[in-house]
Amino acid sequence: MRPNVLELRGLGKRFGDLQALRGLDLQIHAGEVFGFVGSNGAGKTTTMRIVMGVLAPDAGDVLWEGSPIAFETRRQTGYMPEERGLYAKQPIGEQLRYFGQLHGLTEAAAGDATDVWLERFGLGERQKDELLKLSHGNQQRVQLAAALLFDPVLLILDEPFAGLDPEAVDAMSAVLREQAAAGKPVIFSSHQLELVERLSDRVGVIRRGELVACGTVDELRGRGPERLWVEAPAATADWAAGLTGVTVVRSAGAGYLLELGDHADDQQVLQAALATGPVREFRRERPSLLDLFREFVSDPEIDAA
């Protein structure tokens, strides 16, 4: 098992009457891509800003390798904010070299790193262009280059894929996987749950300032109810009504999504379906991250807590 390098313990943060974080605990492993998901205002950005030191928590601690995170570690953290953090009317090469030096690189090293990353992102010929002259996707590439050019020990990216076309998404995803393969923890937030599911080693779901689920997608699937998809063309709408512990979640044409509760027997479900006539499909339904997200953020037990 990979070691924890970043640990958040009991983070709390209030803005006036709004309790943005409520005792949030989270451990991030070395060399993993961690997807952070939640509705708008759930606390993702607040958490990231506390890790970066932009905000101070009202309660709790941020630890790096077991000790309180220090300024030098934050200085070596690549941060990509959701809002554009670069200068719109300054040439991109010039400002990347400037940011590299702010993170401790020499002027020569900052220049070399700028050349490498702009070439990597297909912008080597545009170093003298102002940021505002670039497309949204290319501006995102420059923003990511600014987070990478000083070889960070940790990457924190707030909505890095927003508004990107598929080619840009693939390019950015490849870079994040490379950084994780080099042993660096990568944390990113996104509302694109299909992308989070594909890219992340683990996923954390935050709701109203609390981490309500955390683990691999397969682990999160194990927390939800068991489901079956049955396609039985001759079945009537009430064909499953007499089955113990079986609920019809939805139907579409000849197909039925069933949720199996306590004491439900999938073999009885199959026999009941066969009794209606031919069964074209009978399989376990693996919920997507979107399905899981909807369950976690609308769980009545969580609402009552």
Task: Describe this structure in a few short sentences.
With 305 residues, this protein is of the alpha/beta class.
Walk me through the structure.
With 305 residues, this protein is of the alpha/beta class. The chain folds into two domains: 4-217, P-loop containing nucleotide triphosphate hydrolases (Rossmann fold, 3-Layer(aba) Sandwich); 225-286. Helix content is 35%, strand content 28%. The protein is built from eleven helices and 14 strands. The chain has helices at residues 44-52, 71-75, 92-102, 107-120, 136-148, 166-181, 193-199, 217-223, 266-275, 289-297, 300-304, and strands at 4-15, 18-29, 33-37, 59-64, 67-68, 77-80, 154-158, 186-189, 202-207, 210-215, 226-231, 246-252, 255-260, 281-284. The strands form three sheets. Strands 6-7-8-3-9-10 form a six-stranded mixed beta sheet, with helices on both faces. Strands 2-1-4-5 form a four-stranded antiparallel beta sheet, with helices on one face. Strand 12 and strand 13 (255-260) form a beta hairpin. Helix 3 (92-102) crosses helix 4 (107-120). The longest helix has 16 residues, at 166-181. It is elongated and about 75 Å long. The protein starts with a strand and ends with a helix. The relative contact order is 0.13.
Short descriptors:
single chain; Rossmann fold; 2 domains; 6-stranded mixed β-sheet; 4-stranded antiparallel β-sheet; 11 helices; 14 strands; 28% strand
Largest sheet: 6 strands, mixed
CATH topology of the largest domain: Rossmann fold
User: Which residues form runs of ≥5 with pLDDT under 50?
Assistant: 300-305
Rounded mean pLDDT is 91
Our estimate of the beta-strand percent is 25-35%
